[in-house]
Amino acid sequence: MHPLLQHDLEHLDEILEQACDTALTYLRSLPERPVSAPAESQRIAPGDDKLSEQGVGAQRALAQFWHDHAEGLSASAGPRYFAFVTGGGTPAALAADWLVSAIDQNTQLSFDSVASALEVATLSQLKQLLGLPESLCGSFVSGATMANFVSMAIARQWLGLQRGVDVAQQGLHALGPLRVISAAAHSSSVKALSMLGIGRDALVNVATLPESEAIDPAALEQLLIQDPGLPTLVLASAGTVNTVAFDDLPALLALRERFGFWLHVDAAFGGVAAASPRYAALLEGWQQADSVTIDAHKWLNVPYDSAVQFTAQQHLALQVQVFQNHSAYLALPSVRPDNYLHLTPENSRRFRALPVWMALKAYGRAGIAEIVERNVQLAAILAQGLEAIPGLTLLAPVLLNVVCFALDSASASAEETAKRDRFLKLLDAAGVVRCTPTTLAGKPGIRAALVNWMTEEQDIKRALQSMVQCLKSV
Ligand SMILES: *Cc1c(COP(=O)(O)O)cnc(C)c1O
Question: Which family does the record assign (predicted)?
Fold first, then answer.
């Protein structure tokens, strides 16, 4: 064995303690750490990309990383990082995530580990948490992008079936024309259309309800009537990123009865709202979807990367048709919900279920519901505070946990966009709160998405103070 490997093997305790100390230093710094790392600390020093010939051992490598790059880290795990939709990691989820690396299971149905059975058990608990039927089949994937991709790949197989074509076997060219309809599909679903060879141009945008990002069911009906025989995939949203709009799933299901399409529900973060009885009704109908996406690294507050893809049981055979993997050294694919090698794009898979399992054991339904309800309450307080600040205005009513706002003067002009960008740059430089730019109804807006388990009212106060301060010099 290489002497440094031998040394590290003998000093494993100290190495892991050093990693733990480093992690604690970061976590304890979160309340004061700049949410956005200073630009100069985000760059790599010359020579830092040079391969080490002899190595320095784990302890020096760890120390060097922390010494050189601690300042270059954002506070994305912290309570005032409202950019994108960014969850943190609850203590139980974080601890489990460390264990995942230590125990290093390859989660397939390999008959040598409990890992795939625990994945099934975790998904059962998640379904109980969110009011989803036990019959849904789930798999852990790396993120909602991948969950959307997998769902749409199964949908593509189903679209082929409508024409007697096996796309997985014959290829996309055998499929013929099809249609994908949505109102506010997440960009990752559009990316998935490209990855699936369906093409971004296949997406038809249907009209929305007035002042909303949600599909207008009457407009959808008109589209479907125009070409009733065309194989169709409808991408529904259960929580859009700008305004947390929920499509009217019961209305979409009634249309599916008549026209027969695949209904995919992207509930990346909005789905977790179902953990609270206050908001579960927003998701009504998602139990009957053909496929569902839920992120774990957003509102479930599990470290990156983790999401769940759900498929209605009757489509599991289609999922296996798409993702089956034949090899002389592997068992033949069988249609069963724990045979993960044949259900998702990966062959080797990280034991992603464990952090979710641990979080649900540790905090239960009540704990997750509390995070959801607190975030929603704080979003309302943030919105109230923003409205009271001269110079800021809400761009949309706050439905749940995302506040979409703008500078007072916001109009669809290049100057206003530049002014918004200056404001966000000042906010980043102040380092107290991070928000992301967006466009809503053509206007340059700003989003604050609250999903972190640590966020408290004092964080909202500090965020508002920083905004007032930055407005002065915009
Ligand atoms: C975040 C998000 C995605 C993409 O998820 P990743 O986890 O970043 O891959 C897809 N859909 C919605 C609605 C989202 O909020």
Answer: Belongs to the group II decarboxylase family.
